[in-house]
Amino acid sequence: MNIAFDCERMKYPHTGLFEYCHHLGLALKDSAALHDHIKYYLRDGDQQYFDPASEFLVRKVLHKFIFPNYSKVDLWHITHQTSVYVPKSDKIKKVLTIHDLNFLYEEKPAWKQKNYLQKHQRNIDRADHIVAISNFTKNDILKYLHTDGKPITVIYNGCADVPVLKDLKPSYQPSAPFLFALGTVNAKKNFHVLIPLLVNNDMELIISGRIDPAYQQKIMDEAQKYNVTSRVKVTGPVSDQDKAWYFKNCEAFLFPSLAEGFGIPPIEAMRFGKPTFLSRTTSLPEIGGTAAYYFDNYDPEHMQKVFRDGMNDYQQKQPAADIIKHASQFNWETSAAAYWKVYKETLTK
C-alpha cells in the first residue's frame, strides 16, 4: 500500500492539528508493514519534523486549484475535515478524519454554521471512509451531516510522552504553587473563568499556548477584577520540555473548554497523575472518564467548590496511579494500528 498522509496543517506549530499530524505520522511509519509506505504531504521546509529518509510529497499553493495526478498513491488520508488539498481521481481511495464540529458550539451566526457544514459535506462526499476522533464527534457527524451509509470509525488520538529533563527550568518559573492550563488562548478555551480559583489562596495561574491578543486581554481584565493580576501569567507557546515541567510541578491542571473533539492536554496532564479539572461539555467527559473532575457550569462559587472538593478528594484517595493508567490507553501506537486497519479495509472494498 502507498498511503499519502496529509500533513499540510503542520504549517501551524503549537496547535492540536500539528501534534496530531506529527505524532500519528511518525507512528504510522514506525508500524508500517514491509510493503506498506507512508508519503508525507506537506509544504517545503516542514520535512524537518520527520526522518529525512522518509518519502515526501511537496504541497504547493497551486494545488488548491490544480491538484497533481499522483500515480503511485493508492489511498489519500485527508487529516483535516475542511482541507482543500484532495485528489480528484476516483482511482485514489480517500479516508477523511473529522476532528470536531466545534463551530456548532461557539455561538457563530447561522449563515456561518451553514457555510462550515457545506465545507465538511464536500469532503464527506469525496471520502470512502470517515474517521471520528471521539464518539461525541461521530454522533455530531451523524446528526448534522449526510454520510450516505459510508463506514465511520472512531479512533481516539494518542498522547506522546514528554520526558522531563532533570536540570531544565522553564523560561518562566513560578515563585509559588501554581495551577496550569494549556491550549490555544482564545474564547473557545474559556480560560478567563479560572481566575476566581485564585481567590483566598496564594497560588499562581499559568496559561500557555498560542495567543489571541483580544482574548488575552479579557483574561487580564478578569484578573484585575479579582485583584490577582500579579498571579496570572499567559506565557504564549512553550517548548515540550517547558510544558512537561509545568505538568510535573503544577498543583492541578485546568481545562474549562467549551468545545473539543477530543482534548489532548487533559490526557497529557493525566500522564503525570495530576488532578485534572474539565468542563462537562462536548467530548471531555468521554476522554476524562472517572479520572477527572468536572465543572458543570462557570459560576465562580460552583467552580471554587468543585476545585476545593476535587483537591480534597485527590489528597485523600491519592489516585495518581489510576489516573496514569487511564491516560495510558491513549497512545499513538494504538491509533496508528487502527488507522492501518481502516486503510486496508478501504482498499479491499
Describe the structure.
This protein is α/β, with parallel strands linked by helices and 349 residues long. The protein has two domains: 2-158 and 331-347, Rossmann fold, CATH 3.40.50; 178-328, Glycogen Phosphorylase B (Rossmann fold), CATH 3.40.50. Helix content is 35%, strand content 17%. It contains ten helices and 13 strands. The strands form two sheets. The chain has a seven-stranded parallel sheet, sandwiched between helices. A six-stranded parallel sheet has the order 10-9-8-11-12-13, with helices on both faces. Strand 6 (129-132), helix 3 (135-144) and strand 7 form a beta-alpha-beta unit. The longest helix is centred in the last third of the chain and has 18 residues, at 300-317. The two termini are 14 Å apart.
